[in-house]
Design goal:
Layout lengths: L14 E8 L3 E8 L4 E2 L6 E2 L2 E14 L2 E13 L9 E3 L15 H14 L2 H9 L6 H10 L10 E10 L3 E8 L4 E6 L4 H9 L6 E4 L3 H10 L4 E4 L1 H18 L1 H7 L12 H25 L4 H8 L3 H8 L18 H9 L5 H10 L6 H14 L13 H8 L8 H13 L1 H19 L5 H8 L5 H9 L1 H9 L5 H16 L6 H10 L2
Parallel strand pairs: 2-6, 8-11, 11-12
Antiparallel strand pairs: 1-2, 3-4, 5-6, 6-7, 8-9, 9-10
Helix pairs in contact: 1-2, 1-3, 4-5, 6-14, 6-16, 12-13, 16-17
């Protein structure tokens, strides 16, 4: 069998090489079609009557580090069909080898398309130049847009969620086919009316996985009332944890009382802590003014006008979500405090000397930090040190209360034990949240009704009210296997594509790159 390399094997299928010309930066190949006849594009009748010829140029894949330009001798044929309205036509090349009016062969167009999908405009153009492919950034994007295809498979199970065009300003919507694990369409906004119109055009959908926002649930209920809605399990777990954190924040005054940190002596504060304490007093004054007006049944709008504060802040104060507690700021000295205490007890009272010695032990703070610590120690020797008892933040308390006792230090265990003894409603809230998350993990919705009744009388009543309003979707999340996690993963890929385009890609281009890359 002859294994020698023929020139025709280097050009697209169906062409015959007549001659080649080697130039410094390119290879020019003169080719013609192997076929003797050609079918009329209008009627399909084969013809061999050649009317004329013309030269056509097209780019092909590079060869030996040089660009390849094809010079294609194209024939014009006469159509002999009596009823055909086309008398003369140019020959076509089979299998998309060289489409009509194209300046690139089909195989080069395929490479250009995938370069545009993977890299976008400018990066792909720069890389294509290194590959000796003559293509510009605008051409790359035009190819991506032109070859974009919408999935046509019927949809049964979808996931829907929003993504940010610009965070806190403008959002869009992504819809994913959860069965085939691929995005289907991008919508320009997250308005319920837009999602409702799209869902109405796809009546084959029977299951919709979504987050717990009310917009998509309302749109799905109106457009496809027969479809099963599934609340996203991750959001249910995260919302439950956030509800317990809010319960801790509402209980901070009781927590401070039970752990003995109710009194603050300003005389024992350092300069930096005194500034923090003054801000705390201003916030407390604001809270008291708003609560005083609320106790006299003054509407929220009126409170906003009289106090000059935002509606959000006023609502937080009235709902008990802005119960501020003064906390000593965390210091960079925390890892070095045992050594400093030992030196202080041994009689070393010079802050500058302690700072120099501490720097040798790896401390990177300034002399002022050591000076404030020494000032505190001197003042504490003359006053009741319990007045400066530290209280952890609400987030820290929530974490410690949901962590196993065997993973806590002795001081943390004592603190949490005091809170559990003195703030029983918070313990009940923790129990409810743990039970709810256990139902999600074990997919056991049997106890949900009883849980809702207990939670409606607890510190997590707001979370329980939201679960009640979306009970059907929550139950579906506990029983069905579908989840919106695949949609969240596609949003991560969408963010990557959008950032490659420096956030300037329009909806059609972003959708073409996201869906075309599957």
């Amino acid at each position: 069998m002859d294994q020698s390399l023929r020139p025709s094997s280097l050009v697209p299928e169906g062409f015959l090489v007549e001659r080649t010309t080697l130039e410094p930066d390119r290879v020019v190949v003169w080719v013609r079609s192997r076929q003797l006849d050609c079918a009329c594009p209008a009627c399909g009748v084969l013809s061999r009557r050649v009317h004329s010829r013309y030269l056509r140029r097209a780019a092909d894949l590079p060869l030996s580090g040089r660009r390849v330009d094809l010079r294609v001798m194209v024939r014009r044929f006469r159509c002999d069909a009596v009823l055909c309205g086309r008398q003369v036509f140019s020959e076509r090349f089979a299998n998309g080898v060289l489409p009509p009016l194209a300046r690139r062969t089909g195989r080069l167009e395929h490479i250009v398309h995938h370069l545009g999908l993977a890299l976008g405009g400018r990066p792909a153009a720069s890389f294509a130049e290194r590959l000796m492919l003559p293509v510009s950034n605008d051409t790359l994007l035009r190819v991506v847009r032109r070859r974009a295809q919408q999935p046509v498979d019927p949809l049964a199970v979808i996931g829907i969620d929003d993504f940010a065009w610009r965070r806190n300003h403008r959002y869009g919507t992504i819809v994913c086919d959860l069965e085939r694990r691929r995005p289907v369409v991008l919508l320009p906004d997250r308005e319920p009316a837009t999602a409702q119109a799209w869902l109405r055009d796809h009546p084959s959908i029977v299951t919709i996985a979504r987050d717990r926002g009310g917009g998509y649930g309302e749109a799905a209920a109106k457009a496809l009332p027969h479809a099963i809605q599934i609340a996203d399990r991750w959001h249910l777990m995260e919302n439950a944890s956030r509800a317990f954190l809010d319960a801790v924040r509402k209980s901070m005054r009781q927590i401070r009382s039970v752990i003995g940190a109710t009194v603050i002596d300003p005389e024992l504060l350092t300069a930096a802590e005194r500034i923090q304490y003054e801000g705390y007093l201003r916030r407390e004054e604001t809270n008291m003014a708003i609560l005083a007006l609320a106790q006299h049944s003054v509407p929220i709008k009126q409170i906003v006008r009289e106090t000059g504060h935002s509606r959000k802040l006023v609502r937080q104060v009235i709902r008990g979500e802005r119960t501020d507690v003064f906390r000593m700021r965390q210091s960079s000295l925390e890892p070095h405090l045992p050594w400093l205490d030992g030196q202080w007890d041994a009689g070393a009272r010079n802050a500058t000397d302690l700072w120099r010695r501490l720097k040798q032990r790896g401390f990177r703070g300034s002399l002022r930090v050591i000076g404030e610590w020494a000032t505190r120690r001197r003042r504490a020797e003359k006053a009741d040190t319990e007045a400066l008892h530290r209280i952890p933040s609400a987030r820290t308390i929530a974490r410690l209360m949901t962590t196993g006792r065997d993973l806590l230090s002795k001081s943390e265990t004592v603190t949490i034990a005091a809170i559990e003894t003195g703030v029983l409603p918070l313990v009940e809230a923790r129990t409810l949240i743990i039970e709810f998350q256990s139902m999600i993990r074990n997919k056991a919705p049997a106890g949900l009704k009883n849980w809702l009744e207990r939670a409606s009388q607890s510190l997590v009543v707001s979370f329980a009210r939201g679960v009640t309003n979306d009970e059907a979707a929550v139950r579906a999340a506990m029983t069905l296997s579908w989840s919106n996690g695949q949609t969240e993963g596609q949003i991560t890929k969408l963010k990557l594509v959008k950032r490659q385009m420096y956030g300037r890609g329009k909806l059609d281009l972003l959708q073409a790159r996201l869906i075309g890359a599957i």
